[in-house]
Design a protein that fits this description.
This protein is α+β, with helices and mostly antiparallel strands. About 30% of the residues lie in helices and about 20% in strands. Helix 5 packs across helix 6. The protein binds iron/sulfur cluster (SF4).
């Protein structure tokens, strides 16, 4: 999982990108980077670690220029190493280009092989470099057409930002798997993986970038194009369960509301007699609030999370029970003692952490422990940019719910169904829409049209461009009206929206049992 950010036309572009990336830090902590342009040349700084560690005041000042893109990375393709950090920047026959990518390409190995046959030399093992080589090799004239040409050859998930000397291009793949949105800060345009990063820099959310849309920002203003064949949307629904920040609203769905709905649905689908309901903090928190609200069981913080856990630890020589989990979570014994406890978590991956949590709660005095999971059993790996373990390591791929219940030693275990999950997210979109309509009614201004990207001045239609120089560029802000088929839920259903090519590496095929 990664986060991307871009800003066009601001005196403090590098510092604002630094802040934007900081707000996206939850999407990747392995490396961070910023590329800047002063209109003539690109500058780049990348490093391993958190945003705050990678950039100093001096480094940000050296990233001179008024246009920037940035990236935070959590590796899903390619090793965790500086050579794979992004943005990737190149000089090619037509100038310079920097590119930052969130997602994962499913035909990268195949394309890389073909490019190497034609003489390309790769500097990294990241799939993103394939896009850069395809852009450099394209026979199209303009950089916009070159990027479109390159992306028409790739398969998989991509929300990406590209920077040239004098333009910023933001593109979302035709299925809209990963999020991408557009905002404004004064006269400057901003793009980001999540709108919560706009908040920190006082930018205004304008709208989500549509699946298959390319937004070009340059000296002429903003242009929107749809260079790819139309496809049915398959947005990653796990963004709403786990990845995105709760204060983000993606594609018209507020993440916090969606998670509360998951908890409400879980309470209806899997009720249990209990004294308290507690979250596994922080990711299980909103769903627990929803569960408590719907079930009437009192909400308590039976587990407290440490926010100061770094990346490496020196373990004591004498083993301490639940050492790894204890670093992050501690039980509140007085709250738990003698209680029948419902514990709500977002997912179970290998089962080892849940097992330790159940044991920790019992040791602290809980009379019963009932696990409730706000998503279905995770049975399949993700190939679109999320770092899930292989199928063999996913406990639900090889065990029934009852076997998992026995393994983690809970009294009962239950998961939310896919149908309930999808419905909960759709309900959150309705709530968001109603909130906007109500707000507009109160302020007596008509709400912007709920759109599919084809409404309003400046919106794009297939194969056409539409542009505006003004800040009053009218764009649909509600996002597309989602329907039950608009989501990827392959990590639970195995229904992958992008079929695999035979070039998927042998290890991946083996674990997929293909
Ligand atoms: S496989 Fe799962 S995590 Fe990956 S894109 Fe689909 S829903 Fe999201």
């Amino acid at each position: 999982m990664c986060g991307v950010f871009g800003i066009y036309g601001h005196e403090e572009a590098a510092k604002l990108t630094y802040l934007g990336l900081h707000a996206l830090q939850h999407r990747g902590q392995e490396s961070a980077g910023i590329a800047s342009s002063d209109g003539r040349q690109l500058k780049l700084h990348r490093g391993m670690g958190h945003v705050i560690d990678v950039f100093s005041q001096r480094q940000l000042e050296e990233l001179s220029g008024v246009h920037c893109i940035g990236h935070v990375r959590y590796s899903t393709s390619g090793a965790s190493a500086l050579r794979n950090a992004q943005p990737i920047a190149i000089n090619y026959s037509r100038g310079s280009l920097a590119l930052a990518h969130n997602g994962n390409l499913t035909n990268a190995d195949e394309l890389k092989h073909d490019l190497e046959e034609l003489g390309s030399i790769f500097q990294s093992s990241s799939d993103t470099e394939v896009i850069v080589h395809l852009v450099a090799k394209s026979r199209q004239n303009s950089v916009v057409d070159r990027v479109a040409d390159a992306l028409s050859q790739v398969k998989g998930a991509y929300s990406l930002v590209c920077l040239t000397e004098d333009s910023l291009i933001a593109v979302r793949d035709p299925l809209g798997i990963r999020p991408l949105c557009l905002g404004k800060l004064g006269d400057s345009w901003v793009v980001a993986s999540e709108p919560s990063s706009f908040e920190l820099i006082d930018a205004r959310f304008i709208r989500d970038i549509d699946p298959g849309e390319m937004v070009i920002i340059d000296g002429r203003g903003v242009t929107s194009a749809r260079p790819f064949p139309e496809a049915s949307r398959r947005t990653c629904i796990f963004e709403f369960v786990y990845f995105a920040k709760p204060d983000s609203t993606l594609d018209g769905v507020n993440v916090y509301e969606a998670r509360k709905n998951l908890g409400r649905a879980l309470a209806l689908q899997h009720p249990v007699d209990a004294d308290i309901v507690i979250p596994v903090p922080d990711s299980g928190l909103p769903a627990t609030i929803g569960y408590a609200e719907k079930s009437g069981i009192p909400f308590e913080m039976g587990l407290v999370r440490s926010h100061y856990v770094g990346r490496t630890f020196i373990e004591p020589e004498q083993s301490i029970r639940h050492f790894g989990v204890r670093l992050k979570l501690s039980p509140v014994a007085d709250t738990l003692r003698g209680k029948r406890v419902v514990v709500v978590d977002d997912s179970i991956v290998r089962g080892t952490t849940s097992r330790k949590i159940v044991k920790m709660l019992r040791d602290a005095g809980a009379a019963e422990v009932h696990m409730r999971i706000a998503s279905p059993p995770t049975q399949w790996p993700c190939y679109y940019g999320v770092d899930t373990p292989t199928r063999a390591e996913l406990i639900a791929a090889t065990h029934t719910v009852e076997e998992i219940n026995q393994y983690i030693t809970s009294d009962t275990l239950a998961y939310l169904s896919i149908d309930h999950l999808v419905h909960a997210v759709l309900e959150a979109q309705k709530t968001h829409q109603q909130g906007l309509i109500e707000q507009a009614r109160r302020s007596s201004t008509p709400p912007p049209p709920a759109g599919n990207g084809a409404n309003g001045e400046g919106a794009a239609t297939n194969g056409q461009l539409a542009s505006s120089k003004s800040g009053s560029f009218r764009l649909p802000v509600h996002g597309q009206a989602l329907n039950p088929t608009a989501f990827c839920h392959a990590c639970w259903s195995g229904d992958y929206p992008i079929k695999f090519t035979p070039t998927l590496n042998k290890e991946q095929l083996r674990f997929l049992h293909l």
